Amino acid sequence: MVSSQAGSLVLENISKTFPQRDGQGEVRAVDDVSLTINEGEFVTLLGPSGCGKTTTLRLISGFELPTAGRILLDGKDISNRPPNKRDMAMVFQSYALFPHMSVSKNVAYGLRIQRVPGRELRERVERVLDLMGLRGLGERRPNELSGGQQQRVALARSLVVEPRVLLFDEPLSNLDAKLRVQMRSEIRNIQRRLNITSVYVTHDQVEAMALSDRIVVMNQGKIEQIGSPEEIYRRPTTRFVADFIGRANFLEARIERVDGGEAEVELLGQRVRVPVTFAVSAGDHLTAVLRPEALSLREDATLAQGAVEQAMYLGSSTDYVVRVGEMVLIVVETDPSAHVVFREGQTVGVTFEPSTVHLLPPG
Amino acid sequence: MNRLYPSRHIAEFRRIFQDPVLFIGLVLVVIFVLIAILSPIYAMVDESRTPDGQELFDRYLNSPVYRTIIVNTLRMGLIVAALGTALGFLLAYVQVKVDVPFKRLIHIVALIPIISPPFALATAVLILFGRNGMITQGWFGVRYDIYGLDGLSLVLTLSYFTVAYMNLKGMLQALDPALDEAATNLGASKWRIFRTVTVPMLIPGIAGSFLLLFVEAIADLGNPLVMGGNYEVLSTRIYVSIVGLYNTTAAAVLSVILLVPSLLVFIVQRYWISRTSVVSITGKPSGVSQQIRHPLVRWPLFAVVMFVVLFILLIYGTIFAGAFTKILNVNNELTLDHFDFVINGYGSEAMKDTTQLAAIATPLAGLLGMIIAFLVARKTFLGRNALDFATMLGIAVPGTILGIGYLLVFNQPNEITLPLVGTIEIIPKLTGGRAIFGGAGAIVLVYVVRSVPAALRSGVAALSQIDPAIEEASISLGADNFRTFMRITLPLIRPAFLSGLIYAFARSMTTISAIIFLTTPRTKIMTHQILNEVENGRYGNAFAYCVILIAIVLVAIGVLSIAVGTTSGAERTMEGGA
Known about the structure:
The complex is a heterodimer of chains A (363) and B (578). Helices cover 23% and strands 36% of the residues of chain A. The longest helix of chain A has 18 residues, at 177-194. In chain A, strand 1 and strand 2 form a beta hairpin. Chain A has helices at 53-61, 103-113, 118-131, 147-159, 177-194, 205-211, 229-234, 239-244; strands at 9-19, 26-37, 42-46, 68-73, 76-77, 88-91, 165-169, 197-202, 214-219, 222-227, 249-259, 262-267, 270-275, 285-290, 295-298, 304-313, 318-324, 327-333, 347-352, 358-360. Mean pLDDT of chain A is 90; it is low at 1-6. Chain A has two domains: 9-242, P-loop containing nucleotide triphosphate hydrolases (Rossmann fold, 3-Layer(aba) Sandwich), CATH 3.40.50; 247-360, CATH 2.40.50.140. In chain A, helix 2 packs across helix 3 (118-131), helix 2 (103-113) packs parallel to helix 4 (147-159) and helix 3 (118-131) crosses helix 4 (147-159). With 363 residues, chain A is α+β, with helices and mostly antiparallel strands. In chain B, the strands form two sheets. Chain B has a two-stranded antiparallel ribbon. Chain B has a two-stranded antiparallel ribbon with strand order 3-4. The A-B interface holds A 19, 23-24, 26, 61, 63, 65, 67, 80, 82-85, 88-90, 92-101, 109-110, 113-114, 141-143, 146-147, 150, 154, 157-158, 161, 167, 174 and B 1-3, 5, 7-8, 11-12, 14-15, 18-19, 467, 469-470, 472-480, 483, 488, 491-492, 568-570, 572-578.
C-alpha cells in the first residue's frame, strides 16, 4: 500500500479488466498497479503494445473506470470523478484537434469552458501560441498545418488551461524521426519551465529515457520496474526490463564468493566483483547482464576466443554477433580508435568493462 | 451468452448519472422507444394471442385462400427483391466503374423514388400500360392487363431499387482500387476481376439489399391497393380487415403472419450480413479506380441504363402531364383545375396539415437519431445494443403493423391507478377524431418512429469516421457531454444530420401504410387523399397532389440544406490530424 499523503498523483492498487470479445471471461489490462507521481515530476509509462500503459493513462484521465483500486490527486479520491472534472489535460496520439475550428478556437476551447473573460482569454491564447512557435497561425484550420504544427497546437491547447496534470498518449508517434527528436526536447523544456506534473505513455525507450525523471516499465498489466532512466538501464531488476530497454547479453553466472555487498563471479574467463543488493550465497546460479557497448573485441589470444558470425558497419559504430562456445553475444564497438573492422568468420578475443556487469535478482 | 458483471454495469450507469443532461437524454430516448415503438408492436402481438386470435390463426393457416395470399406475398417479395437488387447493382456499377456520359442524370433519376409519393408510380404506369394504356393500347393496340403480379413487380421494383443502388454504390466506391490493380497486375482480365474480386466483395451488400427490398415489398400497401387487382397480398388483406370489416383481431393475426418474415429478414440482415462484410471502409481510398472503357462493355451497358432512365423519366413525365391535363389520354386539354382543387379547394387542408406535421416530426427525428447514434456509438451501458435494435424496429416492422398497434394502444387514454393518488392519465387518447390535436399527435409520433432509424444509421456511420479522441479531447479540456455533443460531435456529423432530416421529411410526406389507419376527419394527410382520388378514378387530382407533394419536399430539402449547412467545415480531414 502506498501512502496517500506523499505525491500529487497516487494510484493505489489499480486494476482494470475488460470483457473478452466473445463475452467469455475477462482480460486483465491493468493488474494491481500502485504508483506515486510527485509534484512537477515527469513520469513515463513504457512498455510493449498491450502492456497496459495506455489503459493506465486512460484510468488516470477518467476515460476508463478502474475495476478495483483508488486514484488520488492531492490526497483526494478522484476515482469516480468524471474526466471533465479532473483538472487534467490530455495530448492525444492523433492530436485530436477540432477539425471544424481554427487554431485559435482550438486553443481557446478549454478557456471558454472555464469562462475566462475575453481579454484575458485572448492574451493567454496569444501567449501560448508564441510559446509554441505558432505565432501568426491562429486563423488557420488544423488541416492547413503540417504534422509538427498540429502537434504544437495540441500541446498548446492542453497547456493553456494550466492543468494540474498533463497527460500524453504517444504524442510523437505520428511524426517523422527528425521532428520527433526536436519535439521531444521542446516538450521537455516546456515541462521543466512550467513545472507541470506529467504522465507520458510511449513504447519508444529512447523517448522515455530522453524525457523522464522516472520511467515505469510495464509488462502484461503489471509494473516491472520504476526508476530513473539511468537506474532502469544500468540496474534492471528483471530480464524483461534489461531486454526491453536497449539491447542486452545475458550470461550464466555462478557465484564464487560473497564478500560484503559484493559477489564474485566468473565471466568470459575473467573474475569480477559485482555489487549486489539482494541476498546471495556462493554456489548460486544467477544471470548477468552485459550491455553490447560494454564488450569489445581484440586480437588477443589471452582473452576468451570467439568467432565473428556477423559484422555490420553502421558508421558511428560497428555491430558484431560473436559466438563464444555455446553463447552468442552482441558486441557494439563504438571506440573511434578501433579502426579495424573484423571480418565474418574471423576468430577474436572478447573482453568487457568489469564495472558495467549487473546481476539480475533470482526468480 | 453475455455474462453480467454487476459492478461494472453499476459503474457505467453511475458515470451516466453524474452527467444530468446525458442521463435525461438517455431516459427520454428509452421512454420514446418503449412508448412509441415497443408498446404498439407488443399490443398488436398480444391482440393476436387472444382466444379469438388463436382461432383465426388456425383458420387462416389452414385455409387455401389465405395460403394463396401468403404465397402471393412472399412470391412478390422475392421477385421485387431480385429485380430491384439487379437494377440497383446495374446502375451503381455503371455509375462507379464504367466510363459513360450523363452520370449525374443517372444518379438523380436513381434517387427520384425517395421523394416520390405512393400511388404516383402505380397510377402513371396504369395510364401508360393499363387496359386502355397510352402505350400498350395506343401504340401497340394490345389490351394488356397489367393488374396483378406483373404490374406490382414493375412498380415496386421502380419504387425501391434506390435502396440497393445507394447501398451498392457506397460499397463500390469504398472498394480499394488497389485490389483491382493487384488483380490486373497478376494478369486478370476485367471480366475476371468482376467475377472474382468485385462481386465476391459485394456479396454482403447484394444480400443486404435483397433482404431490405424483400421487406419493403411485402410491407408495401399503396401499390397493391392500386395495382393488385385479384392478386391479393397480406398488407391489402390487413387494410380490408380494418377499413372494411372493422376487425382489429383479424388484422392483428394477419399482421403477425406478415411480421414473421419481416423480422426474420431484419435479424438475418443485422446479425449475419453485417458481420460477414469484407469491405473495409477506411474513408481514405488509396487511389482512383480505373474505369472500364472497352466499347463492347461500355456502350451496351450505357444503352440498358439509358433505357431504364428514360423509362423512369417517362413515368414521372406522365405524372406531370396528368396533373396539367383534363383527363390524360382521354381529353388532353391543358388545365389548372386539379391544382386549384388541391391548393385552394378540398385538398388545401391536407396539404397544410401534412406539411406541418412533417415539419414538426423532422427535427425531432433528426435530433433523436443523432442522440441515439451518439449513445450507441460512443457510450457504454447495459442495453446499448437493445436500444439500437428497438429503434431499428421502427422501420423493420411493416407500416400497417405499426398503425394497428397505435390504434390498439392509443385509442383510449393510458392511465395507471396508484394507491392514495388515484387514477392518473399518463398518455391521453392519441388516435381517432376526438383525440387531442385531432389525432395529429399519433401521426407525428409515427412519422418520427419511421424516420429515426435512417437518421440513426447515418449518424452511426458518420461517427465511425470520426476519431473518438476528438470528443475525448473536448472532455479532457473540461467540457461536459452536452457541450461536447453540441459543439464538437453535432457540427462534425452535420452532413449526416442533414441527410437524416431530409430523409425524415421526405419519408413523412410520402408515407401511407403506417398512417392510413390514423388519419381523422380533423387531420387529413395528403397520401391518404391521393388514395381516395385514385380509388375514385380522379387521376388528375391525384397527380396534382403528387406534383405539389414533390415540390414541397424539394423546397424543404433546399430550406434544410441552407439552415443546417451541407458541410461540417472539416471536409479535408475528419481525424483531427494528418
